[in-house]
Structures are given as C-alpha cells and as structure tokens.
Amino acid sequence: MDPITNPYAPGAGQRPPELAGRDEQLRTFDVVLERIARGRSERSIVLTGLRGVGKTVLLNALRSSAVRADWGTGKLEARPDQRLRRPLAAAAHQAVRELGHPRPDDVDQVLGIIKSFALRDAPTAAKLRDRWQPGIDVPAVPGRADSGDIEIDLVELFTDIGGLAADVGKGVAFFIDEMQDLDAEDVSALCAACHEISQSGLPVIVVGAGLPHLPAVLSASKSYSERLFRYSRIDRLPRDAADRALVGPASEEGCEFTPEALDEMYAVTAGYPYFIQAYGKVVWDIAPTSPVTLQDIRVAVPEAEAELAVGFFGSRFERATPAEREYLRAMADAALFGPPNGPADGRGFDGAEPGSAAYAPGGELDAVPTAAVADVLGRKPQSLSPARDALIKKGLIYSSERGQIAFTVPHFGRYLRTQA
Fold first, then answer.
1. Is 413 helix (H, G, I), strand (E, B) or coil?
2. Fewer CB within 10 Å, N- or C-terminus of the chain?
C-alpha cells in the first residue's frame, strides 16, 4: 500500500493516531482538574509502566487536557546528571505565562521569584559570566525561594505560583517525565512541596511518569508519599483496545485487516502500544492491498523485528558493559526457564522450545530472582551486585521487589536470546 499514507507513528513520545485504552486515565484527570478548580482537595498523579507502554504519550495527552481547561502548564524530563532547579524553573516560567493573569505587577513578582529560585543553582562564589541565566526578563526577587535548601525553596515557589493561579480561578500543573531519575534530595523536596500545597488547598499539582519502581523511589524519600499521590499503572493494551489502535487509523485510509491478521498482530505485539505502531508501519508498507492478511503479517514481522533490534533494543544494549551484558543475558535465560523448581524439561512455560516460532512472549516470567540469575552464571549473587546496580542506574532493569529483578523494556529477554 502507499507508504505516503501510512497512518502509523512509531516514535518516542509521539502520539499515535488512535490513543486507545487510556480513556479511564483521561476521564479521571478531567475530574481532578475540575475538582481543583473548584477548590476541592486532590492528590498529584504518578504514572508508572515499562518502556513502550505510552507513558510519555499519556503524559502529553494529560497536559493537553490541562491546557484546554485554561491551566498553566510546564513540562520537564528528569535526567540523572541534572538537578531539579533549572528545568523546573523553565517549566514554572512557561506555566505562569500561560495563566494569563490580568495584573502585570503580580506576574512580574512571581517571575522574579522564579528567577531567584533558578539563579540559586549556581555556586555563591561563581562569577556573573558563569551563572546560568533563565531567560526571565524581570529582576530577581531576593529573599524568596532562594535559601539554597531545595525543600524550603520549592515549597515557597509552589505557594507563590499557586496563589497567582488562585487569583484567576485556574490551576498550574507540572508534568515530569522519567521521574525516577530525579536526585534523591530533589525527590524529597518535591514530595514535601506537594504535601504542603495539598494541605494549603492551592491549585498546583504534579503529574509524574516513570518506570515501575518509581513508587518505591518516592516511598524511600517520604513515608507519606504512598498517600500523597494517586498511582496509575500503565500497562499493555487489552485485545479490544489493541485492535482499535491498529484498525482505527487504517480504516480512515480505506484499509481493513482480516480476523486472522489481527490475531497474529496481537500475538507478536502482545498489546504493547509502541510495538503496535512499529509492526503496523512495516505491515502497511509491505501489504500489497487491503485487506491485510495473515501472510502479510508473517512477511512483515522479520523486517519489523530487525528495525526494533537496531533502534529499540540494540541502542539500549550497546550502553551496557561486557559484564553487564552477561548479566542481561543470564536474566533472559532465567526469565525463560524460570527458577530451579520451574519446568523440568528445559522448555518455556508455554511448553514450546526456546526460540521456536511457537514460543509465546507471555510464557516468560515478568521478574526473576537475583539468585536465579546467579545460578545461570554459576556465580555468587554478591559478586554480581556491581553489574546489577549499574544496570538499574542505566534504566535497563529495575527491582520489582526485594530479591527480584526485571527488564524495563518489554520483549528484551526475547531479543537477547535471539542475538545470542
């Protein structure tokens, strides 16, 4: 079919043509916005899930909902090598500008506080030319949000921004992607600021997105974080939603799928939104005409998997050292064969031979014991701790619970076994 009219959009954070299966989260957020606008108390929100389930897409969709509600919004992406002040100051600057407050003097006052907050990022003895300038065209307001203690400063910043929003009957929402990568001190300050704002009833919320272990990161910072946030697990799509994500965009271009083709697409994608877009794009380019058949899918799958092997999987695998790659491969084997008391015949949990066409991705364990990984390598678990900790820091694996480890990327184990 014509590649120019290909409707599928596999990309990092790129919104698919059909945002299927996320209606509940969108409706819930609309209620949160309306309650806060009416002065009702509401918790901030945390979205968690594996890579490729559409957390960033959903985060952007929620931000669009806030913009439609005339809220001020700002977005940032956390990075392990960057503290919170600079990106949050930029997000706050944008949010205040979006509010459209009618009194310029009040706006300039808050912008000056944001500037003071941002400038505190530089060491006190730094020369003027070495200080980062936030691009806010008003004088800094000293004595507010510039103490140098990020927790105190963040509470004061959110309080002043919330007061400005309350003046015009609106709210402010900060959207933070990759939230698990925040510095531990910044996580603690963010929790404290959300707690203070919630108690004061000011219209400011934080919407964060991150990997499945993000709730544990927040809980380790502040014990009350379990009650501070509304947690939402973003997972792969159920069959009906996965079909809508695939069929909806195609039908607008006059294309259909046979029932057998849809069965095969769900089998190879397992309902993960990114895979639906990635496989769908290749299938569209390869299929000669509508309707798309089972044979079209089978022809397209190797090409789609080759592209994923280079971009989605390979780019992540290349970040690992040789020792870390050894650990990853051992995880893949442990996830397939299970713990020592798993299947005794050496087959996968679905009874299929590993690597065979009949092997179903769902037959893998979601998480494996660290002891099982050590058994695969014939090593003591303690000797593997450096590799495991480094992989966690790189965001390739996460600790789902004590003594358990899992990939942050779906189908990563299958990719590793294929490469091996």
1. helix
2. C
Cα dist from 222 to 185, 229, 253, whole Å:
11, 11, 50
- Cβ–Cβ < 8 Å for 368, 331: yes
For the chain, list the domains and their CATH numbers: 3-11+237-316 (1.10.8), 23-233 (3.40.50.300), 319-419 (1.10.10.10)
Token match 């379990």: residue? 226
The pLDDT tens digits of the residues spanning 35-90 come to 998 888 899 999 999 999 999 999 999 999 999 999 999 999 999 989 999 999 99
- For residue 191, count other CB atoms closer than 10 A to its CB: 23
Bridge partners of 175, per DSSP, are: 75, 207
pLDDT for the residue 122: 61
Q: pTM for this structure? A: 0.87
Residue 13 has pLDDT above 70, yes or no: yes
Question: Which residue intervals of 309-362 are DSSP H helices?
Answer: 315-317, 322-337
Report whether pLDDT(32) > 90. yes
Q: Locate tokens 């003046």: which residue?
A: 167
Distance CA 150, CA 158 (A): 12
Residues 6+ apart with CB under 8 A from 125: none
Q: Are 71 and 98 in contact (CB under 8 A)?
A: yes
Distance CA 277, CA 386 (A): 36
Residues 185 and 149: beta-carbon distance below 8 Å: no
The answer to whether the bond into 212 is cis (omega within 30° of 0) is no
Two tokens at 348?
A: 């996968």
Q: CA-CA distance, 84 to 304, in Å (whole number)?
A: 38
Could you give the CA distance from residue 362 to residue 336 in angstroms, rounded to a whole number?
Answer: 10
Average the pLDDT over 188-216 and give the result: 94
Ramachandran class of 337: left when φ > 0, alpha when ψ lies in -120 to 50, beta otherwise: alpha
Residue 286 token pair: 């390869």
